[in-house]
Amino acid sequence: MAEQDVVDLLTAQHEQISTLLEQLRSGREDRQELFTELVRLLAVHESAEEEVVHPVAKRAQFGAEEMVDARVEEEDHAKKALAELYDLGVDHPDFSSKLADFADAVAKHAAHEEAEEFVLLRRQYSVSQLEHWAGSVRAAEAVAPTRPHPHAGSSPAANLIAGPPLAVFDRIRDAVRDWRSQN
To answer: For residue range 125-139, what is the model confidence (pLDDT) as tens digits?
Structure first.
C-alpha cells in the first residue's frame, strides 16, 4: 500500500475545511467547537503550505512563481479574514455574513491550488518526493501556530522564525481554553 502523498494529504484537508465550513454555515449548536477546529486546521494547513509546498512548487518550473505568489496572496487575505472572524466570535451578528464571504474565498483558493499548484507538483515530481513532502507537511503542522497571525508574514523564513514561538503561545492558550471548558 502506497503512502499518502502531499497532494492527497492537502486535498483531504481541503475537504475537511469545506465540511467544517458547511457545518458552521448550517447553524449547528456546536458552532464554537466547529469554529475552533476550523481555525486550528486552517492555521496549521496554511503554515505548512507556506513552509513546504509553495517553495517546492516555485522550484518545479520556470514561471511558477506568479502562480504561487497568487496563492500566497489569497492566503494572506484569508488569514486576515479568519483573524477578524476569530475576534468577532461566533455569536456576533455579523459573523454569519462574514463567514459566508470567507467560505467562498476559501473554496476558490482551494480550487486554484488543486487545479494549478497540485497539478504542477504531480507533473514535475516523483511519487517518492511527493510522499516525502507529505511527511514534511505533517512535521510542519505539528509545530505550527493554531491561530492565524496575519502580521507574522507568510514566507518560509517568517514561518520558521515566528512560527515556533507563536505555536507555543497558541498551544498554551488552547490548553487553558480546554481546561476551562472541562472545569
So the answer is: 999 999 999 999 999
